[in-house]
Amino acid sequence: MKYRKIISILLALSIYSLGLYTSEAFSSNNFLVLSDIHLDAVKNNPMEISPDRERDENDLDPITFTNLLSEIHVSIDTGTVATPDFIILLGDIVGHTRTKPDSPVDSETIVFTSLKNKFPKTPILYTFGNNDAITVNYGPFADKGRRDTYKSPFNVATIKSGWVNGFLSTGTDCHLQPTTFPCLLSENRTNGYYSAYLKSGLRYISLNSALFSPKRVYVTEQDAQNELQWLRDQLQDAERY
User: Fold this and answer.
1) Please, which residues have CB within 8 angstroms of residue 130's CB and are 6 or more apart in sequence?
2) Residue (of 100, 81, 86, 237) closest to 169 by Cα position
3) Long-range contacts of 60-67, Cβ-Cβ distance < 8 Å, separation of 24 or more
4) Which of 15, 24, 125, 114 minimizes the C-alpha distance to 73?
5) Residue 208 confidence (pLDDT)
6) What 8-state DSSP symbol labels residue 39?
7) How far apart are the first and last CA of the chain?
8) Each residue of 86-112: pLDDT tens digit?
9) Distance of CA 109 to the CA centre of its chain
10) Can you tell me the distance from the alpha carbon of 110 to that of 68, in angstroms, rounded to the nearest whole number?
11) Could you tell me if 32 and 225 are in contact, meaning their C-beta atoms sit under 8 angstroms apart?
12) Which helix H or strand E contains 87, and what residues bound it?
């Protein structure tokens, strides 16, 4: 769902267009965006980087993923790429092919853990993608029916991968640490959306757009309406502050 990524970034930029933070704060931000990793934890053959057509089986393999992260890290260390203040991990980190029931858990664990280990001092913000639902594609962010502890990507990030919070790796709370950024402002751990401050006055809004899809399963229209109401409240609050 490519428009999910657009929504997340444009909503952050819409706050800028309203004049709710200074141009100086905006221009000083360096951040890294990773999107649509589509990792298959058990894939052995390398991903074809420039395929002649789109194929679901051409998911990213763990070795290539590790190499890509290493290349990014080297580029930052050598100054080729500016050191990011934070990392935005946009959704669909799980591959299209699910070879076993726990494939999403395995793939998410690799991604969350690898990023935390490779960038231990850099805050990482995660946006949910439809492929990231633990039980089924376009499923709920948190599957209450699962019997194990890994009911959502949030659980995988915090329990298996060392994140303090499943939306923000550092777990910084704006209400408790108002001068440390990024920090979490509001979160819904059941349906997978949240807001954060990236800098003072720079609000980031991350939506779960799978709730609005006709392909959605095990979620309701009321879930979608609740998210829209939350979004209205966030935008109104941003106008006040």
Assistant:
1) 1, 4, 91, 92, 137, 138, 210, 213, 215
2) 86
3) 60/95, 62/110, 65/37, 65/39, 65/110, 65/111, 65/114, 66/114
4) 114
5) 98
6) B
7) 31
8) 999 999 999 998 888 899 999 999 999
9) 13
10) 13
11) no
12) strand 86-89
